[in-house]
Amino acid sequence: MPSALPDGEPVPEDGALPAPALAGAADRPLGFYLHVPYCATRCGYCDFNTYTATELRGTGGVLASRDNYADTLTDEVRLARKVLGDDPRQVRTVFVGGGTPTLLAADDLVRMLRSIRDEFGLAADAEVTTEANPESVDERYLATLREGGFNRISFGMQSAKQHVLKVLDRTHTPGRPEACVAEARAVGFEHVNLDLIYGTPGESDDDWRASLEAVLGAGPDHVSAYALIVEEGTQLARRIRRGEVPMTDDDVHADRYLIADEVLGAAGYEWYEVSNWATSRAARCLHNELYWRGADWWGAGPGAHSHVGGVRWWNVKHPGAYAGALAAGRSPGAGREVLSEEDRRVERILLELRLREGVPLALLKDAGLVAAGRALGEGLLEAGPYGEGRAVLTLRGRLLADAVVRDLVD
């Protein structure tokens, strides 16, 4: 089952934010994340807040139905308008994730986007993305999304090899994600991402190279590649514990990452975040950059997390409880925390170090500056133009990013 929510202080029934959270809001970009918690089946490695029809049966009644989900989520967008009051900002990015957003009708996704446009307005150059399962869309579905205002789409590919997909419990057929890229281009999507996972038990270097070559053949302008993480409570974790498949290996992950950077770099993709490559600055995912740069976003949907002006909160997880709260006129927030200045400093270092531009050295304390000098000498941070006044990871540093950042935050 999905992982537990963190602890925190209660969220007011009306969702009201402390006044300091809204101070200076006009100077910060605002994004929306819309969570669609439904999946046809549960992938063996997934611990996201998602639910299959079987898991929901009898636990939420009509309130948990995906048939009226767009209406329910629209209620939270209206709540966001009330909470943010006369905040003048138009929305810069919208990202629909899941779960499997494309289990909903395309018109439902468009209606959810329209609610944001109606309540807040969209910036003229707003980035509007949805994740998509390759087997749950066709060209007509994609055309409806494009006509409705979506201009970026991210397909879950994971691997081009059938035996790897089987271990991950992925249901799409090899070749379908690549076909989806062509279909998305045909209906006018300029920006298309393919998601990959490396380090799956049973995957070889040749399998991984074949997946990368399949991506290059499809021609998306953005690629995300993530190391497989075995989360407790997942089917994959249980299979590994029973000895049915081997445990993932950190050294294998490092080798696969190096292969990815080599292959993608040679094809004209530049890394701009540790796990993300793009063919140009315009192809970068602006919504994710909001997260990495600590901007403001409202997360709507069961279990979704939000952040505005140093206040972070999260919604109740179950779709029935979420819908019930909104139907009763209450915020669906389950808890929140107000970040201190030190919390925000640490988070900036944790997140911005992952970016190509790195993190300003001015954020580091004395011990962190000493650690940065040591990391520079060890070849983990760059000494060239990117490294002037900033801590910027080298390729080797990206492989050891978690260890580097632990030293810098001291």
From TrEMBL:
UniProt keyword list: 4Fe-4S, Chaperone, Cytoplasm, Heme, Iron, Iron-sulfur, Metal-binding, S-adenosyl-L-methionine
Presence of the UniProt keyword Amino-acid biosynthesis in the record: no
KW Iron-sulfur (keyword) present: yes
SMART domains given in the database record: Elp3
Radical SAM core domain: residues covered: 24-270
Example of a GO cellular component annotation carried by this entry: cytoplasm
MF term (GO), any: metal ion binding
Entry's localization field: Cytoplasm
Alphabetical GO biological process terms: porphyrin-containing compound biosynthetic process
Function: Probably acts as a heme chaperone, transferring heme to an unknown acceptor. Binds one molecule of heme per monomer, possibly covalently. Binds 1 [4Fe-4S] cluster. The cluster is coordinated with 3 cysteines and an exchangeable S-adenosyl-L-methionine.
Family to which this protein belongs: Belongs to the anaerobic coproporphyrinogen-III oxidase family. HemW subfamily.
Protein name as annotated: Heme chaperone HemW
Annotated organism of origin: Streptomyces sp. SID12501
Classification lineage: Bacteria, Bacillati, Actinomycetota, Actinomycetes, Kitasatosporales
